[in-house]
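Deviations from the work plan: none for this task. Representative record:
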Amino acid sequence: MIVSGSSERIERHTLAVLVVNEPGVLARVIGLFAGRGYNIESLTVAEVERDKGLSRITLVTSGTRMIIDQIKSQLERLVPIRRVRDLTEEGPFVGRELALVKVVGETGGGHTRRGDVLRIAEGFGARIIDSSESSFVFEVTESTEKVDQFLSMMVGLGRLEVARTGIVALSRGPESI
Amino acid sequence: MSERRMSGAEMVLAALADNGVETVFGYPGGAVLPIYDAIFQQNRIRHVLVRQEGGAVHAAEGYARSTGRVGCVLVTSGPGATNAVTGLLDAQMDSIPLVCITGQVPTHLIGNDAFQEADTTGITRPCTKHNYLVKDVEQLAATIHEAFHVARSGRPGPVLIDLPKDIQFATGTYRTPDECNFSYRPAYEPEAAAIEKVIAMIAEAERPLFYTGGGVINSGPQAATALTDLVRLTGIPCTSTLMGLGAFPASDPHFLGMLGMHGTYEANLATHGCDLLICVGARFDDRVTGKVSAFSPGSKKIHIDIDASSINKNVRVDLPVVGDAGRALEMILGSWRESGLQVKAEALAAWWRQIDKWRAVDCLAYERADPVIKPQYALERLRDALKGRDDVFITTEVGQHQMWAAQFLPFEKPNRWMTSGGLGTMGYGLPAAVGVQMAHPGATVIDVAGEASILMNIQEMSTAVQYRLPVKIFILNNKWMGMVRQWQELLHGGRFSESYTAALPDFVKLAEAFGGTGLRATTVDDLDEAIAKMLAAPGPVILDVVVDETEMCFPMIPGGAAHNEIMLRRQDRTESDPAAREEGMVLV
């Protein structure tokens, strides 16, 4: 569909989107992505400025340069969208996501495994928020890559159940959206 | 200030009046009865009762496109809203400003699968520019004002307001548009630096071409004037999309005709061969580009558009200019005059010599016949009968007749040509003609139609009769869905699957049954007299022109082909590249 589009590199971008917190606004954003065949890798949303009724969506998407530009201008065109910033393009930013990770050990499993689990958790700064004889629930707040790393370390040590928020992000330095 | 306290229904009418609405196209039903009651008790706003809600939206589109104002629709909940959906998407695709008010079940019943309930905002979210569900009567007036602001600002489009019945009954305080602030503020003014680059590129070009679209018309008559002045001043050739016809006068020698799938040979080869393509208010739609990878391969491209998302969507351009088309054209014209820059006269003269050679091919030529009426001949006779009249508005349905109308009827002014371009909605033309005639009571309004399309909204003939609208329906009747038949012949081995209408009505009797005039022309000898009678008829009239059944519309760039692979006649069908043909078959 796009001139020389197929040969282009796929990029991953993190977008920060300020929207008016009104009914249907998330449906508009998601509908735009579904209707035009864009990818959503993660999306988080919550109200951030109550007095102005603004919510902030942090959205991770991927595509060619031309598609990323399209996504931004298509978002900007939606009436309740106030601002769209491409954090990936506009400079360094910090992104964090929260993961809850349940690690279930084998029943009657050795204490060495339990010890390994706790050591790794400590190394990643994971907090224990629930524990039982055979399980832990950890809370990890980190970059996506660090969370991935934590999970890959844990995967051999028990059965995992994972809930992740997807990232929220802010630009570094004094600049704001 | 007790007069500012009123019911939601009264507020609707006050807000419409404050936004300059004089005519509303609609159809009543349970969920809008309070508004209809309010309509009954006032006389500022005229209501036009259509025969199906789809007709109301197309009528409002015709009204909007022929006047440059926002068209207005009022329909009920459930089926009223769903019937309006096609028209809303049509307006969305063609950037037509509309405000559509739909009734909704009372707020406490929303979500309960109540009688005539539909999730109207959910259904129409992707086919409107924006939509609202009003749940508080105190927000109603501001919402309606904002809806008009959104519909007409930036790239225009349809806006829907879903209005539950209890809100129509509730009492609230009316606010005028001046008391409301709108946060939606799309860019209007192009950047001066970009304009300077445009004129530098024009001065550098050897084979420049203007490619203009509906955005020039949406921008207003001053945009068409600026375009005309700029083209004449620089001497650069100009082609137009289907939607843009009339923005530049067709009779001007700089005009190459329409480009794209059924565009002229000279327009398409000029697009293919130019070294600077200046796109103004058009969107590199697939009907225009053909095979994207082979589209205008040797040119630098400038794209002027008010919608940034149209830029670099299909075709990568060298210079984007975001802003209003008319404003950009005026700035280019001003900068060009001030700068003292000149076009490369010798190169441009050589470019024109090349274009004249393409013109000499006479791509719209067709085989004359007698007594059988060729559809092209019928349109030529219609064109000649209309010559010298300044009051002609043309609408069309969708198909071969639409393309022939675009090729054979000359448009000298903007807002005179109403056609469904982006969505390609059969059944658009008759209700659109009703809307145009409501806006221009004394004008000659002609719906160039096919016998298949006209049956999709023929019920609006009844509307035309009720309001004594002398719309003229000019049917090119070949008994086939002509464009479907053409593709089946060219791409599907001549297997004419379901494209023949075996039981057509007698259109003369049909017109009479509705209370209009019915006429028929079956031979070349009948034609002129029939056209004269059609033009003289005082009320709604159908002229059934029986035309050659198998005529095809040329030139044609088959789907997936490049502009220089244009077909001029049946015999040009290429068997040589089956891959290209298969690709074309997949495209529509």
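The first strand of chain A starts at residue 11 and ends at 20.
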